[in-house]
Amino acid sequence: MKRKVCESLFAVTLALTVAVTNIPVTAFATEINQSARQEQMTESVQTENQGQQSDSLQENHGAQNETNSENGQNSTDNPAGAEQNSGEGDNPAGTDLKKDNQFEGNNFQKVDNQENSGVAEEISRQQNTDDNQQNAQVSEQAAMLSSDETQWNWHKGEITQNELKKLLGDSWPYAGTYRWSKDRENWNKTSAYGNPVYTFDTGTYYFQKETVTWTGIQWNDIGTKEIHAYYNMEINIYGSSEGVVYNSENLAVPLNSTFQVYDNKYKFTVKNIENYEIKVTATGGSQGERKLTPDANGMYEVIFDDDVTVKVEYIATNYVNVKIGQTENAEVYINDTLIENEDTRVNLNENFQIKIIPQKGYAIEGVTVDQASVSDLSFEKYAASFSWYSGETNQATITISPKVVKEVLALKENVMVSYHKGMNVERLKNNIFNTVVNKENTIPNNISIDDVEIQYQSGLGWQELDYKPIVGVFAHEFGNNDTEKIRISYKGNSQYAPLEAETTVSISDERIETQVIIQEGITIQYNTEDVMKQELLQYITVQDKDGNTLPVDKSELTLSYNRIVGQQELTVSYAGDDDYKDSVATATITITKGDATVSVNSQKITYGESFEAPIFTASPEEAKAIGLIVGITASGEKYASIDLSEVTVNDIAGTDIPIYGKKSVQEVMRSLGMTSIKVGQLPELFEKIQGIIGSESDIAGVINGIEKVINILEKIVPGINDVTIHIGELPTEAGVYTAAGVTVNSNYNTAIGVGTLVIAQKKTNAKLSFNQNIENKHNRLTAAEAESFDFGGHIEVDGNAVGDTPGIRTNFVGKTATGEIVSGTEAFKEEGEYIETISIIGGNYLAIPIVRTYTIGEAKNTIQFEKKIVYASYDGNEHGMTAYAYNEDGDKLGEAALEYQNILQTSTNVSPVENSSAPIDAGMYRVVAIYDNAESEVGTLVITKAVAQGTVTVGNAETTYGQKLNLNSVIIQTKNIAQRDIAAIQDTIACAGSDEAIGSHAITVTVPESVSRNYLRTIKVNKGTHTIISKEVTITADSCKAQYGNTFPEFTYQISGVSDKENLGDISVVKREDGNHVGTYTLDVQVANQNSNYKYNLESGTLTIKKRAITVAIDKKQKVKGQKDPALTYTVEGDGLVEGDSLGIYLSRKSGEKVGLYDIYMDTSNLNKDYELASEPSGKDKFEIVENKAGLTNQKNDSGKSKTNGTQVKSVKKQPGTVWDRIKTGDNNKPVGYFIAVLISLAAIIMIISARFQRKK
């Protein structure tokens, strides 16, 4: 209830709140969202305006340049507008540049229309037409103006008249007349002349255009435009890299760049930096340079009437004073600031930069700081720069002293320069430089020849020293005059500027006189020209006139002599150089024969290829080797060749021989009529050449060398002397050849070299082909066709037939129609079936023989194999061929029957019988296809042996001792073995050892010959292992039972796991523990002489001794009332008591002395554990007390005491919990039942009363 009241109060409060405020919560949230969106739109417009302003500035700049170009104006004509578009960019000051960019041209046009609505109706239609046209133009311009949504930003508010007209939509020649006003009362109008510059203040202007009609002048609104005048401002900071300038909105201003200010004033603040004073100055405008002072808030203000540059200087209060030494001819900059007085300040603990720029004609040779030289000066464009650390001492002084020197190129006057015709120009430059330049008085004093350019006055201006004037030109070559005017130009470097100076020198040849000295009695061995020259130079020196050996390059000496064996006159000439004059000398020398060698380039090529040249090489080369090649071709023909085309008579003579000297030996042979020559005639040829040479040279050694070679070759190829030589050729036929080379230059001792040339038969892309193919499916020819048929074959290379090929053999074999077997080398043309085989032996080619069958006879039904020859590899499966019979029209009649005959047996055990089943085993099978009324057709089936290595791996087996191994269960794994062969191999499996004892032995297989014959490689057998493990046998002792006191039964056992018990050893069962009392005892199995082939598992049994069952009968007892009780006794029946044992049973009776029967109780709590009662006492035996009547006496034993089994039994009172309560002879406790019944009844009554009470309650 209370909750409902609260809820009601809450609802009422809520309703009252809504009613009072009358503003829903959702409406309040919506208003907040609208405010946020409005803020975002404001920021977006401001950003867009800034971008539009930048674009407008770029457009104004281009438009003004275009206008100035069209009107031919320059900076002189329009000084105010020359830079009016410079410096466009962003507005870093953050000034609001634009409030409303929208023109109002459309509204003005509507107002004009309303004003014009009162025009008199009598104006003519023509007038209306003209007005409408002009109004249309005005409307078009207004639309153009209003469509430009950007404001106009003009530098200083200035714009030329033509540019303004262009912006208002006018076009060249800008003839329109316009006016403008801020308030539509005070108007400014464009000029009718020239291109004046107008100045606009920032604001919104109304623009109108003048329209002239026949009735007068009208001004039509074309729109409004917001114009902003701006000034360029630049702020630069010096003295600290941490300096910052902030605009009035506390935004950092970009430094060292120009930005625009769209107001006539600009305010800013400068960041204060500890230990610095601030100095602010402004330049530009009518106020010139002035110092700016901040107001109380630290704000500086710049007033604009022109562009302004502001300089902010941070002047350190903790500083080091830098003093500059004397610098009359140089300017010093510290941190890029020109030091105009002697002292300046730099910050403490700062590396400041010093730059020293010399005046023209001067250089910086060095700088000292506090009298210590600066070692790390760097130079660029003659300016020296370095960095220096100011230190930590406040107001200390550092003195920087640059060494400024004047550059001088000092030249000597009227000095003598050594020169001769042909002098090396570099040497001449060195002569002039070293003679003319006065290095002691030259700055820089380390100037070198590489730093200067030297020219002379040729008559046609300054020229290089090696200048060669054109003939007829009024100019001279250097050295033609006794004196020459020289100009030396120093190139300069980063430290020193270029210099040049002129002087006049005299020319003279000042070189040293020389003489050539040749040692007497020189003897050298003939060799190549270079080698002989080097050897001769060892005996030649160049000396001055005083006999001093001069350091000349001997390789430059010129040696002239007749280079041939014998005594020759040697002339040595020294041409001189830039230091020494020329000289010459002669002497007689002796030249002996030189040593030479000849090598043979032994090669092996294939027929059709060419030998690599050269085959014969003489060393030295001018020893000239000729090569004789002899051998036997693959066809068995002898061959000899020699090439004498490159050896001339001069080469053999070793000197120049008139007329014949330059002719080759082959040309000489033709001249002598020796067009054909045999090997043995070569010495005769060279003897005739000796006659041509005459006494100029002796070639007897050459002839002797040729004879030696011929003797060697005769031994290699007997009979070669009689073989005609192929002149100028190399062997081309396949064969083996011996190549022997001989040097033939008579200036050398004759040398011989021998090698081998081999031309192998060509087999690549070479094959045998039949001369003519049989153009039918059955290779059948009629007898007439066979007569003209071109049997035989030829070699083809790359598909092209090769003619005249030696070594081709053709063989024929077959059976005539009469059954005669024939063979021969000529084709058989009578009716029958034949095989033609083409092979090649010897010759230049090596090719596989080809075979075809052909039939001579009339056309019949024919048989055709799908494949005439079928190749297969043995895989254990049948491989057959297929042939079909065709009639004469080529129609397929059916499949032909096939008979297979192995004509190439792989085993002698296989008979070459015909079989109609497709073969499986490897071999070559002649396959005969048979069909009715058709000649049988023979094909070939080749089943090659399996190539892959076959492997048989026998698996391992394990059996238990006594178990026979089933060899068929042994797994055999094979690789590369045909399936059909596995069973055959499996049948050979056998154990290599005995199964009679545990252990291991091999399981092996034998590969039958019927299997191995089908495999190329021996099948590898990996044996297996048969392991016989011991047999488990379990011997278990039989468990048995016995009654205490009786004799134990015989101990027996059971054997499982074996049937033969004879070999197990001696087995026995023994009782593990001693004792005969009731309990369970372990029976262990023991085996003596165990068999090692068995693994024994011995399992124990048990002997259980059970309690001895007895029956106790209580003896009846009686006494006379008042007498003592007789002894209570019992009798043991059943199995009886073991001798020496006692039972431990005690008897007692129920107490009482009244006449009557009393129960006798038997206490068995101490009953002997080896015994058990077979049954309880009957309970009939009572102890009776009778009245004392005559004749009644107590029963007594002989001693007069009551005993039971010799144990005295006392009469005792019954105690709770005694055996009496458990075992008694009778039951007289009937009241208990009643008591229980009463208790049950009472319980029932109580339950009934309780139930009723509960119901009432």
TrEMBL record:
- Name the InterPro entries on file: MBG_2
Instruction: Report domain MBG positions.
Output: 1033-1104, 1110-1174
* Record's compositionally biased regions (Polar residues): 38-88, 103-117, 1191-1210
Q: Please provide the record's keywords in A-Z order.
A: Membrane, Signal, Transmembrane, Transmembrane helix
Q: Which domain of life is it from?
A: Bacteria
Comp. bias regions, Low complexity = 126-137
Region of interest called Disordered, as start-end residue ranges on this chain: 38-148, 1190-1215
- Give start-end of the signal peptide: 1-29
| Pfam families to which the protein is assigned, alphabetical | MBG_2
User: What residue ranges are annotated as transmembrane?
Assistant: 1232-1253
Q: What is this protein called?
A: MBG domain-containing protein
Give the species this sequence originates from.
Answer: Dorea formicigenerans
